[in-house]
Amino acid sequence: MKYLRTTYHHAHDVIAVSHALANDMKLACEPSRIHIIPNMVNTDLFVPAVQNKRAGAFIFITVARLVHIKRLDLMVRAFASAFAGQKNINLRIIGQGPELYNLRILIKSLRIGSQVCLLGALRQPNVIIELQNANALVNCSDVETFGVELIEAISCGLPVIATRCGGPEDIVTDEVGILVDCDNTNQLAMAMQQLIDCYSEYSATKLHNFAVLHFGDQSIACELINLYASLLNGKPP
C-alpha cells in the first residue's frame, strides 16, 4: 500500500479498468483522480463464426488459469447438476494450472468425463476457434478485476454467464448474458439452463456490435485520447 500511495501521489490522474478496481484504488488515491476506462478487445480478430450453431451439441466454454480463485470446481459441479448424462451438452475448459489434477478427479467422480474436455493452454488463434465453435462462455470466479475473456467471447458472438465478483458487473448486461452470485452452484446451474432455453434470443451480430461499441479499439482509444488531451490542456476530462 505504501508504494501504491507513493505512485499515485506522483500521478496527475490514474486509470482503472472497472468500478471494482476503482473502489480498491480509492484506499490509496483521491477518488476524483480515478478514471474508469475498460480493457479493449480486437474486434477484427474475435469475430462470430460463419456457421450456424443453433443445431447439434450445445457447448459451454471457459478460458481461465486453473487456480482455486477461478472456481472451475464450482462450474464443473453446476454443469454436472444440470446436464449430467445429456450427451448433447458439453463443457470445454481452456487453461492450465495447479488445479488440473483436482479437476480431473472431480470430473471423474461426477461421471461426466464424456461431456467435459480439459484442453490445456492454447495459443490465441486456437482460443478464437474454440470460442467460435462454442455457444456460451462461463466465468465463475470469486474475484475478477475485469474479465477479458468475457469481452472476447461477446465479440465472438457468445452470450456469457459470470459471477458478481467485481469486473464482470461492468461488462455483463441483460443484453449479453446473465450475472449470478459467487459460490452458488444451484444459481449457476439454473443460469446455464436458462441460457440454453433462451439461446435463440441472442444475436451473434448484436453481441459483436456490443463489443465493438463498448470495448472496441476505436472506442477505448477515443476515451484515452480525450483523457490525455484534457490533462495536457489543463482541463477536467
Give an overview of the whole structure:
Helix content is 41%, strand content 15%. The chain has 237 residues and is an alpha/beta fold. It folds into two domains: 1-37, no CATH class; 58-210, 3-Layer(aba) Sandwich (Rossmann fold). Helix 3 links the parallel strand 3 (58-63) and strand 4 (89-94). The longest helix has 16 residues, at 217-232. It is globular. It starts with a helix and ends in a 5-residue tail after the last helix. The model has no long low-confidence stretch (mean pLDDT 93).
Helix-and-strand structural type: alpha/beta
Main sheet? 6 strands, parallel
Count of separate DSSP helical elements: 9
Distance separating the two termini: 27 Å
Look up the CATH topology of the largest domain.
Answer: Rossmann fold
User: DSSP strand (E) fraction?
Assistant: 5-15%
Strand order of the largest sheet: 5-4-3-6-7-8
**Low-pLDDT residue spans:** none
Name of the CATH architecture of the largest domain: 3-Layer(aba) Sandwich
| CATH top-level class of the largest domain | Alpha Beta
Give the full name of the CATH homologous superfamily of the largest domain.
Answer: Glycogen Phosphorylase B
Provide the succession of SSEs: HEHEEHEHEHEHEEHHH
Quaternary structure classification: single chain
State Rg: 19 Å
Task: Please indicate the count of domains.
Answer: 2
Principal-axes geometry comes out as: globular
**Overall residue-averaged pLDDT value:** 93
- As a percent range, the share of helical residues equals 40-55%
Count of individual beta strands = 8
